[in-house]
Specification:
The chain is mainly alpha-helical. It has helices at residues 3-10, 17-23, 26-32, 38-44, 58-88, 95-120, 145-166, 174-200, 223-226, 239-243, 247-252, 260-267; strands spanning 233-234, 237-238. Strands 1-2 form a two-stranded antiparallel ribbon. Helix 1 packs parallel to helix 6 (95-120).
């Protein structure tokens, strides 16, 4: 199954009222996605799992709300970026279909996290902040397609590492952990698609995954996104010594986490 067909199965048209009702129904969702893995179905149909969320203690709830609002801020950023790119008409030809689906996925993530924080955990979902995707006039993503793709890669690669960095903070809630990991895997697919698209169009020569801490042809300001990706030791073991594989290949086999401060530092460049 190619990626576009997979994305289409994962995210129906949430702007259509009939499909939206189906989209948020657990019974119908799991029927529709019967042959797909539970994780992927949950990422595409997140609100369908809400009734399965267990109750947690107040202190744990407050901590969980903080983590989910942090994730929600990132999802707001990604959704708004793709929506503005689509509205601006900067995306070329057939690539529109790709970014429409990615936009829809980000909207589904926003809706899910907003619902969990507000209606399940009883917290206040963080509102969408104002964004300046030019980073103070340094970028022109909505008039220059290569720049749009470059920032898309930067945001998606950040999202993958950010979700991994927070996994330990939601481990006490199995359902939220599963949903977060499902979103993480979808963000990784987005990142791979955009990275390969940039290479296909001749804007870079990167693979679909991160190699060492290389930024390729991305602006120097994005280096913080890839800091630590040259790590070859896991569980206290230098993997290159076990496998005999070169260090570049080892770094491609593991995603490294970003902590909250690192991610907010990256995101702050694009806050209005």
């Amino acid at each position: 199954m190619n990626l576009l067909k997979l994305l289409d199965k994962m995210c129906p048209d949430t702007q259509n009222s009939d499909q939206k009702e189906l989209f948020f129904s657990r019974r119908e969702a799991f029927h529709k996605f019967g042959d797909m893995s539970k994780k992927m179905a949950m990422a595409a149909v997140p609100l369908g799992i809400l009734s399965a969320l267990p109750k947690v203690a107040k202190a744990d709830t407050e901590s969980l709300i903080g983590v989910l609002n942090y994730a929600l801020t990132l999802e707001h950023l990604e959704y708004r970026y793709y929506q503005m790119g689509l509205d601006a008409g900067v995306i070329e030809g057939a690539d529109m279909a790709i970014f429409e689906k990615i936009r829809d996925h980000e909207l589904a993530h926003v809706n899910f996290l907003t619902e969990v924080v507000g209606n399940v955990l009883g917290g206040t979902p963080v509102m969408e902040p104002g964004f300046d995707f030019t980073a103070g006039g340094n970028f022109s993503p909505f008039t220059d397609y290569p720049t749009f793709l470059a920032l898309s890669q930067a945001f998606e690669d950040t999202g993958v590492r950010a979700y991994k960095g927070q996994a330990g903070n939601v481990m006490e809630n199995d359902v939220v952990l599963t949903a977060a990991l499902s979103i993480h895997s979808v963000e990784a697919r987005h990142a791979s698609m955009v990275r390969r698209l940039r290479t296909k169009k001749g804007h870079d020569s990167i693979k679909g995954w991160i190699t060492e801490a290389s930024i390729g042809t991305l602006p120097a300001a994005t280096q913080a996104i890839y800091a630590g990706e040259d790590n070859v030791s896991h569980g206290g073991v230098d993997v290159t010594q076990l496998t005999g594989i070169d260090s570049a290949a080892v770094t491609e086999g593991w995603d490294e986490p970003l902590n909250k401060d690192q991610v907010l530092g990256i995101a702050s460049l694009f806050l209005a």
